[in-house]
Amino acid sequence: MRVTPFVLPLAAQALVAPRPHMKRLSSQRPAAALEDYCPPLPEAFEAQAALTADGAAEAYKASLDDPSGFWASEADRYHWQTPFDRSNVYSANFKRSAGPIAARWFEDGATNIAYNCLDRQVEAGLGDKLCFIAERNDEGETSPLQPETYTYAEALEETKKLAAALRARGVKKGDRVALFMPMVPELAIAMLACARIGAVHTVVFGGFSRDSLASRIASAGATCVIAADGVRRGGKVIDLWGIAKDALASARDQGTPVAGGAVILRRLDDAAYPEPQLAADEAWWHNVVTSTDGSDVEWMAAEDPLFILYTSGSTGAPKGIVHATGGYMVGAGHSFRTVFDAPVRADDVWFCTADCGWITGHTYVAYGPLLNGATQIVFEGVPSWPDAGRLWRIVDQHKVTHLYTAPTAIRALMRSGDDPVTSTSRASLKLLGSVGEPINPEAWRWYREVVGDDRCPVADTWWQTETGVIQIAPTMASGAGPHKPGAAMTPVAGCVPALLDAATGAEIPAVIGEEAKGLLVLKQPWPSMARTCWGDHERFENTYFSYDGYYLTGDGARRDADGHYWITGRVDDVVVVSGHNIGTAEVESALVAHPAVAEAALVGVPHDVKGSALYAFVTLTQDAEGQAGDELAKELKLRARADVAAFASPDTFHWAPTGLPKTRSGKIMRRILRKIAAEGADVSGLGDTSTLADPGIVDELIASHAGAS
Ligand code: PRX
């Protein structure tokens, strides 16, 4: 089914129509009060921006009027071994009432994303250009066996060698490979090596526990694991291989043979990590990357899966989000080039602090920058180590021009004051990006004025694992109008957002001058959208397409009178903690597995640095009633860490004396729990509680708030 193009939405009109009431901020601080603070694009940035507001608006309009033509010409930037059918660039169905949900792009085309990231760049003369610059956990640290930089030619060579080594271990097109590594260039190289031979990678963030890794290996049916021995994170050494080895054994116990065994990157030296004994089917990376023989490119159909990335949902186990080769490639390349005003000039240096364990690292470290021939930093450490000046020193040392990080990092660094920032130059910076959660206006302003010296615009970019690339972000175009702190603002090419009334499901018409609030949905198919949940298309349809004709994001949003979008946060049972999506159901089941716990419910509460923190309501079994307190809280935290991940451990435990507030049909009223968690004993305005089976429980919960651990 072909989807009809849509008319230019309000937000796009707003792009070319800056509103007169927005004030221009003088460069002298203190400046306008926060609520009036809406700075324009800084002049220094405007002077060098490649985009113009007219150009951006035209591109946006073209992407809606003629999606096929628009995306076909984007696809033409890449090598296609077999051309795609230009008379059928895409087909899609967003209506369950009309049949299975589907999106197909670049039908009949065959390509390879790794070839387009590396071989194509080398052939175009970029072989000697720096591709990756490693920045380790400790300043000045080097790796015993890995180089500190890779040119495009060197990255290609290493990718080919690893691809050949994977093939020698029996990995072939369509097989899944699980990656469990720190943020080193070799992680991106491992992703590219998989893509080169048509293997589907599934990267698991190095902060996950053995059980989380094992369940992902088993769910994906991985045939091989690529891990690292360990990594220094801040002052600690994390035993990644110890976790991976146990996870491998556990996945095998669950019936997944992992016939290709494991390849392990020797990242640390003997002093930090004594060399472990490896089994027969386990090998050191440096011992297997010996030859490029057998590294021929596997040409992939555009719709062949490129990767699976697990993300938490409101219920059940994490979902394996599947992205397809051709559409993801075209989307990632386009997004990186256009949203950030093409950080690919000869002296541009891109620095995205995200880990490849998340979608941001996939699109804006492994793929987007390479598809565009950019030079980038790959940072293994954390922004706070050894102190709050680390990021800014990296910026100065490598002359970083474009920095992309998360609000949680910005807020944490802001707490250390301006000195660690202002004692560095940061003169190379041109643009600052933000991703992962709503950025509060105070942090936005600090980022722009203190970090960016008011010379660099802030791009607050909204998107998701499922969207593959940025969907809503302010335009970095000369003349596009002021940026609003805290607003992601305008849709990018190909994106048609809308708001649905949460109560009725009806679309709220977009009218200039009228504000609206609702469920954020996307109406038009885009090339890099997720295709399915691995092995469970029904779950994909149920989760994302419950409203006929719309992709449901799971986020709430406000559209202001100018037509600009402000993301207000999740509307489901997912809590975003420090930019990590946490499915409350997953953590609850970890807590309930403890013999003392009868029932548990988790909610998110506002947190100054993390954005949201996890707050657990726990009812104990009769036998364990006397155990409520700090000791048990500690045990339960450890359990959440072990079963899910350290970042999924609740901050607070509220011991619910007699139970949790439930409706007569047995559903926990989380709305009430969220309010009590956030407001404590002074909570008011709990709304309608008439459907509760036992309203007395609410008073007990309020009274017991003070006893939380
Ligand atoms: O709630 C939104 C929030 O992060 C969710 C997506 O998380 P994930 O799939 O892990 O991808 C994170 C990186 C793209 C969204 O549903 N989110 C992401 N970016 C923003 C955001 N919320 C507000 N503003 C943002 N810029």
Based on the model shown, name its key terms.
binds adenosine-5'-monophosphate-propyl ester; 709 residues; globular; alpha/beta; five-stranded parallel sheet; AMP binding; seven-stranded mixed sheet; single chain; 30 strands; ANL_N_sf; 20% strand
Overview of the molecule:
The protein has 709 residues and is an alpha/beta fold. Helix content is 30%, strand content 20%. It contains 21 helices and 30 strands. The strands form nine sheets. A seven-stranded mixed beta sheet has the order 5-4-17-16-18-19-20, with helices on both faces. The protein has a five-stranded parallel beta sheet with strand order 7-6-8-11-12, with helices on both faces. β14 (305-311) and β15 form a beta hairpin. α6 (152-168) crosses α7 (185-196) and α7 packs across α12. The longest helix has 17 residues, at 152-168. It is globular, with a radius of gyration of 25 Å. The model is unreliable at 1-9 and 11-29 (pLDDT under 50). Adenosine-5'-monophosphate-propyl ester is lined by residues 311, 358-360, 435-438, 460-465, 488, 553-555, 567, 570, 576, 581. It catalyses: acetate + ATP + CoA = acetyl-CoA + AMP + diphosphate. Belongs to the ATP-dependent AMP-binding enzyme family. One of its GO terms (molecular function) is AMP binding.
Q: How many β-strand runs?
A: 30
Low-confidence stretches: 1-9, 11-29
Residue-averaged pLDDT, rounded?
Answer: 92
Gyration radius, to the nearest Å? Answer: 25 Å
> What's the tally of helices?
21
Side by side, the strands of the main sheet go 5-4-17-16-18-19-20
Content-based structural category: alpha/beta
Principal-axis shape equals globular
The kinds of small molecule bound in this structure are:
adenosine-5'-monophosphate-propyl ester
State the helicity in percent bands: 25-40%
